[in-house]
């Protein structure tokens, strides 16, 4: 008989770790609200990590170890598991938790999906018109950024990407009901289950939109908000992976706050041969939201050659 340690992602985006010798039955009980007291009011739940061990003793030791992990360590465990065991399907639909409104859009917000707020709307308002043929809405949530981008860039192809399959179902649902977008052979939408660019290899985009988790947090925390101790954990990983996915003349719009550090972002961009500037700000009572426009640096070789020619002419 195998013994299992499992980690559940709960509806409030916290984690629950447990031991069982029948994972299917145990997880079904949790999902029905008949499992542990902790998960009873945090349904629906989904399996985020599962490890089989030979003995109960080994399983209980691993369970105890995981329970002492920080939020960031548990998230790393889940990411590694997701990479090895990617969800295969996006659900057709999910319960609607609430609704949000932006200009001519009425968005249904599914359970476990990030509800649009001030940061969402600030980013949506900066999306450029008629500049992109390929669009990536990374961490799509409700799909608002990708939908607005398609409205402003008729005929473009959009990829909606998120590590939460329910969020992708939500984005697909909202795109289907959106006004002002004619879906035809030129305007297409794809939906990809991924963390950052993991499953977007060899793909480039003219416009990349990303509203990352940016708040400095301690556990337990909502994964849609949890930016690690400094708030930069996801931002820095994103910037380190961005360069090969941005088309030559493409641009990325990234949201962060002044608490994440303007200088730190500039240094990260320089390290990755990118350049950026703040194009929009919004002051809230405890922070300033910032929209960064990010582009490739101009070809350094061409710049060097021009300087060499100028010196020769002198």
Structure explained in plain terms:
This protein is of the alpha/beta class. It folds into two domains: 3-84, GIY-YIG endonuclease; 96-300, Vaccinia Virus protein VP39 (Rossmann fold), CATH 3.40.50. The protein is 33% helix and 28% strand. The chain is built from ten helices and twelve strands. It has a seven-stranded mixed β-sheet, sandwiched between helices. Strands 2-1-3 form a three-stranded antiparallel β-sheet, with helices on both faces. Strand 1 (3-9) and strand 2 (15-20) form a beta hairpin. The model is unreliable at 299-308 (pLDDT under 50).
Short description:
The protein has 314 residues and is an alpha/beta fold.
Task: Describe how the helices and strands are arranged.
Layout lengths: L2 E7 L5 E6 L2 H9 L5 H4 L5 E8 L2 H12 L3 H14 L11 E7 L2 E6 L7 H8 L8 E5 L5 H9 L4 E6 L2 H13 L10 E6 L11 E6 L22 H10 L3 E12 L4 H10 L2 E10 L4 E9 L3 H14 L1
Helix content class: 25-40%
Computed over alpha carbons, the radius of gyration is 22 Å
- What are the low-pLDDT stretches, counting only 5+ consecutive residues below 50? 299-308
- Strand count, sense and closure of the main sheet? 7 strands, mixed
Q: Please give the number of β-strands.
A: 12
Q: What do the pLDDT scores average to?
A: 87
- Please give the order of strands in the largest beta sheet: 8-7-6-9-10-12-11
Oligomeric form: single chain
> Helix count, per DSSP?
10
Number of domain units:
2
The assigned CATH architecture of the largest domain is 3-Layer(aba) Sandwich
Order of helices and strands: EEHHEHHEEHEHEHEEHEHEEH
Superfamily at the CATH H level of the largest domain?
Vaccinia Virus protein VP39
Distance between the termini: 82 Å
User: Strand share of the residues?
Assistant: 25-35%
Broad shape: globular
CATH class of the largest domain: Alpha Beta
Overall structural class, as computed from helix and strand content, comes to alpha/beta
